[in-house]
Amino acid sequence: MNPKMEKLFKLPLYQRFLLLFVVLGLLVAAFVYFLYNPAREELVKRQAELDRLQVQLQEKQRIANNLPRFKAEYEQMQKQLELALNELPNQKEIPSLLKSIAGLARDNGLEVLLFKPEKEAVKQFYAEVPVSLALRGTYHQMAFFCQAVSRLARIVNVVDIKLTKPQMVDGETLLSINCRAVTYRFVEAATPSPGDKKKGKKK
Fold this sequence. Notes:
InterPro entries: PilO, Transl_elong_EF1B/ribsomal_bS6. The chain has 203 residues and is an alpha+beta fold.
């Protein structure tokens, strides 16, 4: 028998048990460190990845289930946009529309002292087309004028109304009225001309 083994067997029983526990402890520690912990970390990563994929799957499933509703809402919004655009005058209609505003003021008894088209204010897909008005008349005449403007087929808003200098004339209170009538027109996206494209390439 190996002398080392003989020496080991000659040790007292409690020392042999103690040595056995130490060896087993080292084996368990090696197993935990080299095998169990890496496997556990990999399992945690896989579980996290699985949870993430399940969340994505549920989200995509929810979108798929709601796709008909989203499509219907989109089509409804498209129709509403088309209706709104139909209420915007085109470039050719602007002059006659502005003249009709002045005509409505006169038709409702207002005296038109100033009719001054202002510079357009271009927004994202439309432009504001304002005109400054200086009018003279009663409060009720102004109210009827605003009501008539609101009934136009095209969108026109009367804003920035200022009533000043009231005067009694023939039993009526006449006012100096300053306001702005604002209509809107659709602005189409400008497509670059071939010449512009060539200039861009040269740069």
